[in-house]
Structures are given as C-alpha cells and as structure tokens.
Design goal:
Elements (H helix, E strand, L loop, with lengths): L20 E5 L9 E8 L5 E2 L6 E8 L1 E8 L2 E8 L2 E5 L6 E5 L6 E9 L1 H13 L11 E5 L1 H15 L4 H18 L18 H13 L7 H8 L3 H12 L3 H19 L4 H7 L5 H12 L3 H7 L1
Antiparallel strand pairs: 1-2, 2-9, 3-8, 4-7, 4-9, 5-6, 5-8, 7-10
Helix pairs in contact: 1-3, 2-3, 4-5, 7-9
C-alpha cells in the first residue's frame, strides 16, 4: 500500500513571498499529497527571498519567456526560462531571486509544485535498496529542460481544475519524485562518469551563459563556447539546445538584444554605440537583428519606451 505523504504547511506561504501574481492554486481542492501553484509575471521584479519549506520545490515554465537570476556564492547566475524549462530548490533551502521579461507587456507563466520531503526520502530509500549508494540531497538546479515533467505538471493543473481526488495527486507526486531522482540526482560522481566529455552539466551551462553575458561585445565562435564549457564542439551545440531550448547562436542573440533593449530604455547612448556594446559593430547588422527579434526599429523602440 502506498504510504501517505503530505506537503509541508510552510509551502502554503511560498506564493506570498513571490512578486509573481498567483492565478490559481490546489490549496482548498482537498489535495494534500502536493501543492500546485500557477503564477504569472511580467516586466521585472526586485530581488526577493523564497519562503523556506521542507518540501522539494519544482518550478516549470509553461508560457512566455523570462530571464531568472539567482544569487549563488555572492554572484548572480542567470538562466533563460521558456516553455519546458524547469528548476528545483531542495528541501529546507531558500533562494534569492529576481526575474525580468523583455518588456512589461510580455508575460510568462510558471507552475510551482511543492513535493513532500518525506516522499523524497521514501523514494530515495527505495533507490538505495536496489544498490544506489548515494542519498538524494542534491535535487537543486537553477535550470534544466524536461518536457516530460512539463507535461505532467500541466496534466496536474488540468486534474485540479476538473476536481480529481487526492489519489490522483499522490500518484503523480510519487512519479514526479521518482523521475527527478532518476534523471537529476547526482547518484555518482561526475569525475567517475566515462561520458563526462559529452556532458553539459548545470555548472558548465551556467559558466557558458556567464561567459556570454560578460562578453556580449565580443565575437564568439562555437569553438570558444565549447572550450568554456569544457566539452567537445561535436557535442556542445546539441547539449546546449537540450538544456536551453535554443542553439548557442540564438541564445547569444537573445542576450544581446535583451541588453540592447535595456540600454535603449535607460541610457541616451547613440544607437550605433549600443549596437557595438551588444556585439554588433556594423549598424546594419544591429538594425536587422533588432528588427527581427523585437519587431520594430531600435529608434522606434526607444521612442515608445
């Protein structure tokens, strides 16, 4: 018989700690096996601290696109979230975050699932019984992609809306935790993995994105980025796309245009200077890229903002 697990009471306070607008929640639906909150945001937020809870917090982007910044070891680390992107905060941990979209008119939506810490320990114990020696205390990630998890959380939201009983939520919670332990837990040391030359871990991905963000004015080749990640060029492009949903060149262009938008809104620098700072030394190249991504010229964008 399946053991009963309930989400922590503290999780019910997590939504109030976020600047996102709470659209709907499973609280009050009779579900106790997990808590599911549906949020929306637009524009940019001030830095905020997540509310501590004993549950594993799983966040999945379902619509729109936004940049999420997380303060880690005294430095802001960034990730681009779009539909299918996900992140996790381990039981008992808090995170200092901020987010922004390309404009105040562009909204994003996310699903936040709070999965009981006792369930995580229960499922991890089953893994250890079949020979896995390492406990699963490492379920924490700024960003990863998992379309299966995204589909499951959307199905949970639909089930909550249609009044499915807690039995549905309990089964889904156990499957989600099992899947996350299977795919995301660090059951072995990366240095012992013979596939490591082809792996783009969260840490390596963050390093590449930080390198991109810090040097937007420079020309960057696929070789440069693969070297920064520490994996072969052969694997880098595919692994990067799997992790972010975009190829390296497209992701870099997104960062460059986001910075250009910011400079256009907040400075009076000449448009040609902004283009150069964002990696477009030729004005014509910047004009074409900006029009393609934003749908207007840089001059019109500045005038409207």
């Amino acid at each position: 018989m399946m053991s009963r697990h309930a989400y922590a009471p503290a999780s019910a306070w997590c939504a109030s700690a976020k600047p996102n607008r709470l659209l709907e929640t499973s609280a009050g639906s009779g579900w106790t096996s997990l808590l599911l909150d549906h949020h929306e945001g637009a524009g940019q937020s001030d830095a905020f601290e997540t509310h501590p809870t004993g549950d594993l917090t799983l966040v999945v982007a379902t619509a729109g696109r936004h940049q999420l910044d997380c303060l880690l070891d005294g430095r802001w680390r960034s990730a681009l979230y779009q539909a299918g992107s996900a992140g996790m905060t381990a039981s008992g941990e808090t995170a200092r975050l901020r987010w922004r979209t390309a404009s105040a008119r562009e909204a994003f939506r996310t699903l936040h699932a709070y999965l009981p810490g006792s369930l995580l320990l229960d499922v991890a114990d089953e893994y250890r019984r079949v020979g896995q020696p390492v406990p699963a205390a490492s379920l924490s990630a700024l960003a990863f992609r998992d379309e299966t998890i995204a589909i499951q959380l959307k199905a949970l939201l639909a089930a909550c809306r249609s009044g499915e009983p807690d039995l549905y939520a309990a089964g889904a919670a156990r499957w989600i935790v099992t899947h996350l332990l299977s795919r995301q837990a660090r059951w072995h040391h990366v240095a012992e993995d013979p596939r490591r030359a082809a792996m783009l871990t969260d840490r390596r991905l963050v390093r590449v994105i930080e390198h991109m963000s810090a040097h937007l004015e420079r020309a960057m080749t696929l070789d440069d980025l693969a070297q920064e990640a520490g994996i072969s060029v052969h694997h880098f492009g595919r692994r990067f796309r799997e992790s972010t949903g975009l190829g390296p060149a497209a992701y870099l262009a997104t960062l460059r245009i986001a910075k250009a938008r910011l400079l256009l809104r907040t400075t009076d620098l000449p448009i040609s200077a902004i283009g150069a700072q964002c990696g477009y030394p030729r004005a014509s190249a910047f004009a074409a890229a900006f029009l393609r991504h934003v749908g207007s010229t840089a001059r019109a964008y500045r005038a409207d903002n």
